[in-house]
Model the fold of this input.
Amino acid sequence: MVIPVFFVIHWYASYFLQAFFHHRYASHNHVTMSKRSEKFFFLCCFLIHGSSYMSPYVYGIMHRTHHIHADRPEDPHSPHNEPNFFKLMLLTRNNYQKFYNSQISAAENLKKNLPEWDAFENIAHNWISRSCWIVAYISLYILFATAWWMYLLLPITITMAAFQANVVNWWGHKFGYINFKLRNTAKNMFPIDVIFIGDAYHNNHHKYPGRIKNSCRWFELDITYHLINLLHNLRVLRWRKS
Ligand SMILES: [Zn+2]
Ligand SMILES: [Zn+2]
Done:
């Protein structure tokens, strides 16, 4: 059972880093931290996201663009522009690469307070690093997979961070329930979110993007918020002063 256990741990570690570092810290500046702590989390993202490492700087620009233009043609990853899940993932990747390579220039307000570490990303982001991670994942599966179906998890392992982001971008604007009537289609994906540990409350998040806690109703549980609170209590980060 090495592969299923690895997959579950990888899933949650990967999603927590994306929800905390890329989304709530980088994109929304809900919390602040020292440059040393920031570099530590850059490193964690590289070790956990591996071949699917995403720049929090570019993620932040795209996510802020999404909040401003949700569901409109300018939205860089809307299922209403591209309904097919896999084509949306490809479209998002292409838009990401254009921002990363500065083929699309972002407005100054979209770049404000985003974490940057160019020297590190020259290593973490290049195709050699990504290829090494893919070889490592394939080797792990060959060594430890004990049933054919386990190999079905391999494409998700290789694309983990991008896959998870795409599920939220696609599903979170297609299916679920709403607490708030908005001008966009953001939905809460399910009532009790143990899969995206709080980011599935996408309707709540679009209503209150400035709030660090996504849960609004008594049964909604934002696990990421509680983990961030723990990091706060450990003095790893500070709440943003408003
Ligand atoms: Zn959204
Ligand atoms: Zn957001």
The longest helix spans residues 2-27.
